[in-house]
Amino acid sequence: MVVDLAPEPAVADLAERTARFVRDVVLPVEERHRDPVPSEAVRRELQDAARKAGVFAPHVSTGYGGHGLDMRGRAAVFEEAGYALLGPLALNIAAPDEGNMHLLEAVASGPQKERYLRPLAAGEIRSCFAMTEPAPGAGSDPSALATRAERVDGGWRINGRKWFITGGDGAAVTICMARTSGSPGDAGGATMFLVDADNPGMKTVRHIETLDQSLFGGHVELLFEDCEVPDDAVLGQVDAGFRNAQVRLGPARMTHCMRWLGIARHANDIAIRRANERELFGSRLGELGMVQQMIADNEIDIAASRGLILRACWELDQGRSAAQATSIGKTFCAEAVWRVVDRSLQICGALGVSGDVPLSRFLREVRPFRIYDGPSETHRWAIARRAIRQHAAAAR
């Protein structure tokens, strides 16, 4: 059996052009704008430049102005975009918009696609996905969903509170998960609703300060208080929200891994450059065994992460659930990216903790990934349960 991990020629070309665009356009803009979150003007400047470079919206189908890449194709391009913190924003593949576009393209009705997906794919609007709730509501356990939607004449009334809603500041539409049947703890009974930003029943309570700071629109707390939406605001089917969420969650975990792998590569490149230049104790850093071991471990973590991403993407492209592969890939990559950035900072010593290189910022940005999209402990629990069930089934 032939195993060829190289991307198709068209994908390889797009990845190469993306790498060049990030190096020549995005990184200089990132250097000029040291604020953690760029302005709306910078976002539009970068996205206009990405359009002109022909690298904009690689994940969206051609009918909505994108390149229509499958998951394996995205892996190559997203990694190159992720080499800069603002690279995904420039290509319109940053979270949560990228995952929401994927969801809308798969689940939304025709009118919903025209109203929300088309302007979202064009970068004209932004979006957010509101599922996580303060305790004891939905978090690592989505079935704890407490926000509730009740039928009213012509639509639904939503009541509940959401927090850590990435991109919530300035989002034109919120995809809100609310319980339409059952009780918290039940495996089903959730529905997705499209809520416009001007709905008077949805309010931003506060901006939550977090360790990471570069995600556009921040992390906000939202209050849904007698928030009324029409029937055509239902995304997908009533009571099918948890099932439809899987359309988004597995691929979104992998695209997170792809983007952060780009940052890990960037950190490793900074460390290798420093190891080649810095001289002490009569030799270059790169000639010292302990530094060589850290660089080697970085290379191993990067290569292993890429392999796990490609495996999970292959399963997703085959139409499989890929639950085990995405959990394994997400858990390993989240921890491997942290290790790579941490080792790179250590190799650079005092320079690494300074603002002269972006390693300390990278470290802050990648640490929460071990919690976002399911903490490593939850994924390990799920991985073990599946393995045990599979072993038990094979033994029968």
Automatic annotation (TrEMBL):
Give an example GO molecular function: acyl-CoA dehydrogenase activity
Q: Which UniProt keywords apply?
A: FAD, Flavoprotein, Oxidoreductase
Q: Write down a Pfam family by its short name.
A: Acyl-CoA_dh_N
Query: Gene Ontology cellular component?
Result: cytoplasm
Q: Where is the Acyl-CoA dehydrogenase/oxidase C-terminal domain?
A: 240-387
Show where the Acyl-CoA oxidase/dehydrogenase middle domain sits: 128-210
**Required co-factors:** FAD
**Any idea where the Acyl-CoA dehydrogenase/oxidase N-terminal domain is?**
14-124
GO BP field: fatty acid beta-oxidation using acyl-CoA dehydrogenase
Indicate yes or no for the key word Oxidoreductase.
yes
InterPro entries per UniProt: Acyl-CoA_dehydrogenase, Acyl-CoA_Oxase/DH_mid-dom, Acyl-CoA_Oxase/DH_mid-dom_sf, AcylCo_DH-like_C, AcylCo_DH/oxidase_C, AcylCoA_DH/ox_N, AcylCoA_DH/ox_N_sf, AcylCoA_DH/oxidase_NM_dom_sf
Q: Assembly and partners?
A: Homodimer.
- Family, as annotated: Belongs to the acyl-CoA dehydrogenase family.
Protein name listed in UniProt: Acyl-CoA dehydrogenase
From the broadest rank down, the organism's phylogenetic lineage runs: Bacteria, Bacillati, Actinomycetota, Actinomycetes, Frankiales
